[in-house]
Prior knowledge:
By secondary structure, the protein is of the alpha+beta class. It is built from 7 helices and 5 strands. The protein has helices at about 5-20, 30-35, 40-50, 70-90, 100-105, 110-120, 170-175, and strands spanning about 55-60, 65, 155-160, 185-190, 195-200. The strands form 2 sheets. It has a 3-stranded antiparallel beta sheet with strand order 3-4-5, with no helix packed on it. Strands 1-2 form a two-stranded antiparallel sheet. Strand 1 (about 55-60) and strand 2 form a beta hairpin. The relative contact order is 0.09. The mean pLDDT is about 85.
Amino acid sequence: MSHFAHHSEENYLKTLFSLSARDIKKVNNIALAQALKLNPATVLEMVRKLASKNLVEVKKDKTISLTEKGRKRALLTIRKHRLWEVFLVDKLRYKWNEVHELAEQLEHIESKDLIDRLEAFLDYPAFDPHGDPIPDKSGKLKISSTIPLSSGEKGKRYKVMSLAETNDAFLTYLEKLHIKPGMKLKVEDLHSYDQSCSLFVHIDGDP
């Protein structure tokens, strides 16, 4: 397999995992093409290749899903991506909105020994800078019990665990508000007209 083909396969599997994690029940060729920003014909050809390797399954209704083998490989790619994000933020002092594209390149390094050493060097982090859990070396992902902030109740306090979006503009906006994973918030008010809420952000020992 060429280096490029290896990258491409991992990107497809990782994207399929991401779509399924968002509870999108029917991921077809068009939905996958839109997520990857590729031509549907190109995606169809790659899906056939992945199916021949038992990495994905295409059902009668054209729904595409990961096999157990494909899911494990996707999670191992995600593991590398999130470990590299921790390294870039904690050790090289990149901002959390600057690391995604760099981690996209680094995640395709195949050396398991390097990734295991990287994890040990970082003292076995459980989460990446955006609060997403890091799969272990066997590809297992620890699922935490969380709710979206939009489901919060007025007057209650919550702890930020992870972010639904990690695009540059959103992360920059959250940084201005001093909101990051681990931060404690209190829902001050709920606004039914646009489903937004007013928050009190607890910073550096605020009561």
